[in-house]
Amino acid sequence: MSEKLSDLERIKAQSRQLRGTLVEGLADPVTGAISDDDNKLLKFHGSYLQDDRDQRDERRRRKLEPAYAFMLRARLPGGVVTPAQWLVFDTLAREHANGTLRITTRQTFQWHGILKGDLKPAIAAIHDALATSIAACGDVVRNVVSTANPVESQGHAEAYAWAARLSDDLAPTTRAYHEIWLDGEALVGEPEPEPLYGRTYLPRKFKIGLAIPPLNDVDVFSQDLGLIAIVEEGQLRGFNVAIGGGMGATHGDPSTYPRLGSVVGFVRPEQVSVVAEAVVSVQRDWGNRVERKHARLKYTLDHQGLDRFIAEVERRAGTSFEPARPFGFDHNGDRYGWVEGHDGRWHLTLHIESGRLADVGSQRWLSGLREIAKVHAGDFRLTCNQNVIVANVPAGERARIDTLVAEHGLDGYRRHSGIRRHAVACVALPTCGLAMAEAERYLPDIVTRIEALLDRHGLIDAPILLRLSGCPNGCSRPYLGEIALVGRAPGRYDLRLAADFSGQRLNRTYRENVDESTILASLEPLFAAYARERKAAEHFGDWLLRSGVLDAPALAVVA
């Protein structure tokens, strides 16, 4: 390639398989930070440096360095957590972080506010709990997500097993993680090879998700590689494959955009691993390493052509895609309350607003789940909608779980409005360096104001997907919200409308760069008309499209 590679490509190439000077930087007592180069490498280990933006100006006036701290993220394929792991993660939150646990939209935990000296013991504790943080961030295959309650049939259990297997198969093999965090023997000489990733890993992050129709709770079409399980008579027959999804964009740059994955065919279970590795390897070799804004798989497909990409995947995999099998999705939210599995065990989905587990006043969510973990004999499942499932509960234990849930204020799913139960927000301010506006901290207030409008028109129980993002990068998957607010500046957002309720259609911009009063004034007449004109069981996004509110049709996935 004659064009100059991005600076991050240099950093990766010279890192000696992700080692860089992390050991030296972490040992430096003069600052709470590490170098910018090392921070970029640290992402591959599941962490990165942040600072409290609420304190920036005051600390600058006092001639102090920013209030640096680290975010740490676990790699938990399929979001499965044992009670023993939960208790370890809870302890990390209280002893090494800011006293909260955050469930991410990639079905895992992250911790905020970890000081530099606490980072190594925190990662070691995760390892001792039989989990890891490797590849939870960085230009690699990230945490592999799966439909969060894979216990309705044997086929569901097999689908989750594939998420765990792909996570293992596609993880980096560098020993740097063990050297830096677990006191492993330091490498002498040339770095070990990375059979899949090579010296420079992938051009950009890569996301894989498995969905089991009719529930699309992982937003499978937002993934770089989406696997749609085909379960017939309780047996997993294989997966339809969708490639090229991605949510990120940049304000004012039309060359960046969200994209839904394209369904390219069907593979049988024995072909899954080789096809997944082939897709990753083609993206490794063909992806844009000059302009990072264009480095995701969606841009590779659109620049190289879908047919050419598929042909190369088939060549490397040594197999061909079969025609896609019929499938259908009807929902991409979570199913709250108790659900019985195929084996007679029960699963309770709790609503965790913005995924933040904390103890605030009478709302003792962190403590409540700690008490449940102490007595629970099953496991927990984190969801891509930032909620938690108390899973695999014997019928005789339901009453005890319900008592703990009620005592700690975790039973809001029984009372919350339809839009609150289906709202997702990214962290944004004060810790995210990319945030242009509030998201998580703003969600309770804006939802309350939207609820007042909905209640006025008899829509308080209507399930409506709301997504709130502090910037256009898309961590909360805002482009799949029936209503979405995408941050532009403090207090200002793009209002986007008319995605569907099953994650198969992108929304469109309705109002650009507007404040809260304009957002509410724009929504009020739409809610009034929706209440008057909707058909039976017609969702808000579908009504918006049918009514012609938008100037152009929203973009839908094509199977």
Describe this structure in words.
The chain is α+β, with helices and mostly antiparallel strands and 559 residues long. The chain is built from 17 helices and 22 strands. It has a five-stranded antiparallel beta sheet with strand order 1-2-5-4-13. Strands 3-16-17-12-11 form a five-stranded antiparallel beta sheet. Helix 15 links the parallel strand 18 and strand 19. The protein is globular, with a radius of gyration of 23 Å. The model has no long low-confidence stretch (mean pLDDT 95).
How can the largest sheet be summarized? 5 strands, antiparallel
Helical proportion, percent range: 25-40%
User: Based on DSSP secondary structure assignment, what is the total number of beta strands?
Assistant: 22
Form type: globular
Query: How much of the residues is beta strand, in percent?
Result: 15-25%
Measured distance between first and last alpha carbons: 34 Å
Query: Overall mean pLDDT score?
Result: 95
- Reading side by side through the largest sheet, how are the strands ordered? 1-2-5-4-13
Unreliable residue runs: none
Q: Which structural class do the helices and strands define? A: alpha+beta
* H/I helix tally: 17
Which value, in Å, is the CA radius of gyration? 23 Å
